[in-house]
Amino acid sequence: MYGSARGMARDIGVRLSTGEIGPKVKSNRNFSWLGKMRRYTAILCLAWVLLLAGSPAEAQSLRLVTLSLPPFGFLKGNRIAGLAHELGQAIAEDAGYEVEETLVSVTRGMREVETGSCDMVLMLPGPEIEQHAKNLGDVMEMEVVILGRAGVRLESLQDVRGKRLAQVRGARYDERISRKNGMIVYATENYVQSLKLLVARRVDFALGPRLGLIAAAERLGLPRRALGRPLQLSVLRAALFVSDKTGPEMRRRLAEARQRLMDSGRLSEIVRNYRK
């Protein structure tokens, strides 16, 4: 579109300079005003074409929700930052969208997907989110662990039975962690709150992604010796979810962008930067 507009502009400019556009009557002064009008009209056309050529169409917007769970999503100064933020931005921008991003809790994020208040979120799969959003594919792997205080026995899930565990509200890390298996689950807002409960001995263990619990320990300034050795439960894959209320064109573009960035290694590169 822009190339043809610029070509039109050049053509008009050449015709102006050669006199092709302008007064055609040379001997009759009564018609001089007509020539001037033609020239003014041509100049206005040229200005309008140049304006169109230099003004690209506005990019379509996409509403991205990032979950407030450091290091996946957090505020850095007054800007949203984090691993999920960078992955989401990369996918949306590759798909050609201008991003409108908000930082919210897990439960609010799922509500916004359900109501269509947001278009896209990156999170672990689960029955709650899958009721209202389409999984467009994996974006990263996450190791899920149980973490206890130093000196507390933690060699298998058997050591967790009858104990209290802190887990982020709305998250579903492992189906074996439940009351029917003799475990008492305390819902928290984030990994930092989970570790605060652990250090204060209000719970016996904290459950979550290793990356998230390590980041929380660093934020709290906890020395490594204060915590025991993590027990790995599983390796889960966080995925790109798009609200069911989005149109097929947006879903197609985002799915293709995710695949391109996976194939090129760009998403893996972003993840590696947070695992150093």
UniProtKB/TrEMBL annotation:
This is Transporter substrate-binding domain-containing protein. Keywords: Signal. Residues 61-276 form the Solute-binding protein family 3/N-terminal domain. The keyword Signal applies. It comes from the Bacteria. The lineage of its organism: Bacteria, Pseudomonadati, Thermodesulfobacteriota, Desulfovibrionia, Desulfovibrionales. Pfam families: SBP_bac_3. Signal peptide: none annotated. InterPro entries: Solute-binding_3/MltF_N.
